[in-house]
Design goal:
The chain is α/β, with parallel strands linked by helices. Strands 1-7-6-5-4-2-3 form a seven-stranded mixed beta sheet, with helices on both faces. The mean pLDDT is about 95.
């Protein structure tokens, strides 16, 4: 298998497919639209890490400290609050979320370089018109694992 950045790899690190509740997907898209023209960001708490086949439990929208259409940085106060809540509840960081306002829902080189949670998914929503679902017009929402600088798409089932 060849990862998105062209690095030869032997095996997808998994999972190859995950379920995201429709209400959570809707909340992610709603926040991305509300934060436009800047990128939006947040954290998904889960029963365990996505890499360990955990289940997504809830989405915690966060402020983008960068307040930029080109970059995101989860505000440190929000990150601290959410990570403490997750830890206190015996949960795990299941996913890191952010939006791309003009580009596909694919991790950029910057996203890859800044990825700090190798066992989590990176969920990206694209607000670019060219990336919208041709039938429904819904923004593109995709999931990725970023492991050792290589990206692996994870099929996202929303229901």
């Amino acid at each position: 298998m060849v990862g998105e950045q062209g690095t030869a790899t032997s095996v997808h690190p998994g999972p190859d497919r995950v379920l995201l509740p429709a209400a959570m997907a809707a909340a992610i898209v709603e926040q991305a639209r509300a934060e436009y023209p800047n990128e939006a960001c947040g954290i998904v708490a889960g029963t365990s890490h996505a890499a360990d086949r955990g289940v997504a439990l809830r989405y915690e929208p966060c402020r983008n400290e960068s307040a930029s259409p080109y970059r995101y940085a989860i505000h440190p106060d929000d990150a601290f609050r959410v990570l403490v809540e997750i830890d206190d509840a015996g949960e795990a960081v299941w996913g890191i979320v952010h939006s791309h306002v003009r580009s596909p829902a694919v991790p950029s080189l910057t996203d890859i370089g800044l990825a700090q949670f190798p066992d989590a998914l990176y969920l990206l929503v694209s607000l670019a018109d060219a990336e919208a679902d041709p039938v429904t017009g819904a923004p593109s929402l995709r999931a990725w694992r970023i492991v050792d600088g290589t990206t692996f798409e994870v099929a996202l089932e929303i229901r």
